[in-house]
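LAB NOTEBOOK - FOLDING QUEUE
OPERATOR: T.R.
BATCH SIZE: 2
PURPOSE: Compare the predicted structure-token outputs for two unrelated chains run back to back under identical settings.
PRIORITY: normal
REVIEWER: second-year student, initials M.K.

ITEM 1
FIELD SEQUENCE / FIELD STRUCTURE:
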Amino acid sequence: MQDRTTKDSLVVNAEQLGQTLRGVRRELGWTQAEVGLRMGVPQKEISKMETGTGKTSVERLFLLLSALNLELVIRPRDTDLDGNSEW
């Protein structure tokens, strides 16, 4: 696997997640079809995940993360001084 220049990415919605996953896939030089083959899903499913359209199961998300050699980290959300968060 190639060395990636991508560092940690803060993702707060499906669109950002899709953009991040697409960026990593492109850094690796892989097509959506190649990732789909690694996951055992059609290319159109990768497209939906990258664009945030349609619904994706948690299982498929983890398959994609694994195919791209990524991990999911859960941590408390930072809030601003008045206690508002993006949620």
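ITEM 2
FIELD SEQUENCE / FIELD STRUCTURE:
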Amino acid sequence: LVADLAEWMHTRVPGRIELRMPGRDPIGFGLGAGTTIVISGKVQQLAGWLTGRSGGEDLIAPGGLPELPSWL
């Protein structure tokens, strides 16, 4: 689900985002140039944030979480 959501958002976010999950390869998306925003957490937490079902409180994002478009 996280990979599918990242693919859907690839052209819909203004910057570059990299998602890091334990035991999985990082997933990057976004067409923007500049600094990549790195967000780490469990796959369930990332899926909740990407779908808008969570505010991402349990995620690690040193630069803060970017605003995402509505998924549905």
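REVIEWER COMMENT (ITEM 2): The helical segments are 2-9, 43-51.
FOLLOW-UP: none requested
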